[in-house]
Structure formats: structure tokens, C-alpha cells
From TrEMBL:
Belongs to the band 7/mec-2 family. Residues 21-179 form the Band domain. Its main location: membrane. Keywords: Membrane, Transmembrane, Transmembrane helix. SMART domains: PHB (SM00244). It is a single-pass membrane protein. It comes from Streptomyces yokosukanensis. It is found in: Membrane. The keyword Zinc does not apply. This is Band 7 domain-containing protein. Pfam families: Band_7 (PF01145). Residues 290-319 are annotated as: Disordered. GO terms for cellular component: plasma membrane; side of membrane.
Amino acid sequence: MEPVIIVLIILVVLVFIALIKTIQVIPQASAAIVERFGRYTRTLNAGLNIVVPFIDTIRNRIDLREQVVPFPPQPVITQDNLVVNIDTVIYYQVTDARAATYEVASYIQAIEQLTVTTLRNIIGGMDLERTLTSREEINAALRGVLDEATGKWGIRVNRVELKAIEPPTSIQDSMEKQMRADRDKRAAILTAEGTRQAAILTAEGEKQSQILRAEGEAKAAALRAEGEAQAVRTVFEAIHAGDPDQKLLSYQYLQMLPKIAEGDANKLWIVPSEIGDALKGLSGAMGNFGPLGGGSGNNGKSVPPQNNGPDRWEKPSID
């Protein structure tokens, strides 16, 4: 009885193992390669799959999602014989699980070596300056070569990025010095331009100020001249309206004489010839007031002037 139980237990275990081997669950975005007696049979997609137990085996499970693989820095020689270290990052995706399994032994290693050789080929035709400024060009050329070469492996290269391009230390020091010199040069140029612009604006401001000041002075002089002319016209009209006689004019002449003699620099001045007529009219007017106003040593008779020419009179100096 006991051997029968043992056999039944063995059969149950074998059935259980067979069921486990028969039912294969493949996760989403994954694929599995099935071989029968060592030969490729089919590719299992995501979901529940049935295989023949103990005959079909799962050779490889492949992730179909996009993968990111960074490669270590690789020394590359430029056209001008400078060694630069370049870090690369590859974004790839498996599109054919069968080709990725049977067409290449290790597609990661194959992509890495292909990237290195392609980089050396591309960078070898560029100098250092172009290498540092042509990342997009290098990425596009590298992606084209890799995508073409990895197509038969069931791999699609989506993107290739250069993480870093590191020139030698001596070249980096020279580049830093050059950049510092360029920045100093640009700063000096900007300072000179600012000083020049400030000087131009200052000169323009002074010019406009002088022009406005001259215009203001000219307008002020014109207004003063117009005011003086108006004043003269007003005085002239007032005099003519008052109809002055000779006596009033003679008196005004005498009032102006002290003003003419004002100032220490006036040593010699000319008496106009009209002053005789003014004195004559004034003496005649004073003679009409009697002995108080008309007897100046000649019994009240007015003495006519000896000549009508201008008289010289020298102002006495005060020592």
C-alpha cells in the first residue's frame, strides 16, 4: 500500500511541475525566446502563454523598454593631435527579441565598441575647437552610424548624447586664459563705449544748453530793446503832448550836467554847443524875475555867449 501512495505523490508532484512549466506569464513590455530541443520555436509576448513542458524551454527574457547605457570616458585623438576624453550615453530599444538573441552575442558590448570606433573616426576629422562646438553634429553622425549597424541586431538607437568632452589640462588652462582675456577685452570695449557715449551726451547737453541760453539772451535783448524803444516813444509822445518851451529844455540841460561829470575817470568832457542856447533861455527866464534873479554883475542884462562852438572844460582834480 505504501508504494502506491508514494507513486501517487510522485505523479501529483510531476503534474504540478508540468503545470508550472506549461503556463508562462510574460510581463508587459517584455518578450521571451522559446526553444524546442535547442532550436528557436517562437517568441512569447506579454500575457499568459502555454508551452510544452520538458520540451519547450525559455532561452532568454528581453526587456522591450527603452534602455539607457552610459559608457566610460574614451580617449580620442583630434585632427590637431590632441587627446580628449569623451563620455557618451546611448538610448536604445530592442525591437526584435529573436535578432537581439541570435544575431549578436552581447549587443551592449557590441554597441559600446561600435560607439568607440565611430567616435574616433568622427573626431579624427575635426580639430579641438570644432569638436567642442559641434556636439549636435557629432551626435547626429554617431546616431546614424549606430542605427544603421544595429538594425540587423534588432536594436534601434534612439539618441546618442555626449556627456562631456574633456581636453588636456594644459589646453584647459590655455582656454581659460583666452576666455579671461576675451572677457577683459569685451569689458574694456564696453567701458570705452560707455565713456564715449557719456561724453557725446554731455557735449550734446552742453550744446543744447548753450543754444537755449543764447536764444534766451537774444529774446531778452530783443524784449529789452523793444521796451526801451517803447519807453522812448512814450516819452517822446508825452513831451510833444506837453508842448515844452525853451525854458524847460534849458532846465533839463542843466540837470544833466552833474550826471555827465560823475565818475573819477572823467577828466575832460565836451560841452555841447546847444548848452549856450539853453543858458541863454534860462538867463532870460531868470531876468524876468527881477534883480534877485537877473543881476549877475551886468546890471541885470543877459550876456550873450561869445561863440556857439563846443567849449572844453576840464574837471578839477582832487589831490
